[in-house]
Amino acid sequence: MSSNVRVRFAPSPTGYLxxxxxxTALFNWLFARHTGGTFILRIEDTDKARNTxxxxxxxxxxxxxxxxxxxxxxxxxxxxxxxxxxxREDIYxxxxxxxxxxxxxxxxxxxxxxxxxxxKVVKFDDLVCGHVEFDMSNAEIHPDxxxxxxxxxxxxxFVNVVxxxxxxxxxxxxxxxxxxxxxxxxxxxxxxxxxxxxxxxIPLILNRDGSKMSKRDQGAxxxxxxxxxxxxxxxxxxxxLLGWSPKENREIFxxxxxxxxxxxxxxxxxxxSFDLEKCHWMNVQYLLHxxxxxxxxxxxxxxxxxxxxxxxxxxLTAVLAIVKEKTKQLDEVPDRISFFFTEDYAYEDEGxxxxxxxxxxxxxxxxxxxxxxxxxxxxxxxxxxTLKGTAAANGWKNKELIHPSRIAVSGRSVxxxxxxxxxxxxxxxxxxxxxxxxxxxx
RNA sequence: GACCCUAUCGUCCAGUGGCCUAGGACACCGCCCUUUCACGGCGGUGACACGAGUUCGAAUCUCGUUAGGGUCGCCA
Length: 442
What we know:
- About 45% of the residues lie in helices and about 10% in strands.
- It contains 18 helices and 11 strands.
- The chain has helices spanning about 20-35, 55-65, 90-100, 155-165, 180-190, 220-230, 230-240, 255-260, 275-290, 290-305, 315-325, 335, 350-355, 360-375, 380-395, 400-410, 420-425, 425-440; strands at about 5-10, 40, 105, 115, 120-125, 130-135, 145-150, 170-175, 200, 205, 270-275.
- The longest helix has 17 residues, at about 20-35.
């Protein structure tokens, strides 16, 4: 399916990619993918003083991580480039002269240029907000906008409109903070003699307490989700449901389902508060239900960064398979698996007190090690049978073996399923670790 | 302050005049499952901002008030 829909995400590289910006990008992307249109990335770097390389890179990284691929833009090219505003000087000059010749501009004493408002009532139908009217007739309420700096630099309102014309945008989907700017833009389109694109102003994202979400707020930077080990598909799913709803009473939708269902008409008009806890829950759901292959792929950078000394992928995968269901964020993985790969694992104080430093615990472990050593098969079921059999034969409770042996083989009181953990460790290492522990705490 | 947008559980959504004694999810509180921790299951607390209308009937329509957000830059 293809269509003539053309939408863009036009960030300014002045900081980190914000979740609000990411959601704007996401809604544009979804609209393009739903309609079979084209999604364009345009970098609005007109403010030389504030733009940075790092910020530009953060935009690429964030979009790539979220899976929001663009059809035209940096690295991709396209027939409407360049896609950096800093490289479009000649185009702006052309439009500037056009406006100037038509008498729409005037120069200030300091050398900046302003656009003379048409001083009429501006009306437009916003795809999200509905019919909107602004009475622009009063210059005190709506002063003429500046479009060019004394140094020749261009101002957002002007270049944004020029590029949207030149790049053939059919829809402008952006944050509601631009709604009040829109009548100015509509006037620019009119002065240029070009019909304006359709507008869709999506509500802003607020903090839990209703305040505006700013860069410093928790959960604000997309980079934070990458570092903490959220699954990108979970963050995407969460963001989709923030201000838009497929009208079904469920929460988990894969991206294909969302693309099928997405439409601008069902975007909420109300600003949404960002609930990090729900995002976290959604991430847990994704981690729990994704394939082991996907989990391994997502966890690997964290494991490598922590320099976990696994021998080969088979060994690593076997371990990941049993910690996957407990993992809530990928950045926990190195800690959750570290004890599998060293005999020099640390013992957790509280667990040692409760499970090992109790009368008889070490003797019971010794008996358990002997029983394990004598066992023929080493499957979770067999291990469980051996453990419970040992307990029963001696008149002990199962948990009198379970808790001490968990501490003995892992150093911890919490972790994966005990029998699966022992299976992955193997019989020899399990027995050796139990005996080593007995010696250590004698 | 002016202009614009908005207003359902603490939060995210459902609800577009009767199906609502308002539904789902997160969080929270019980109970159950269980070798730990989770997961899961069951149940519970909890909302139509307020006031006038319109209508036989309003969470749903209109107006006002209040509240929140946005814009008013030589930032985007």
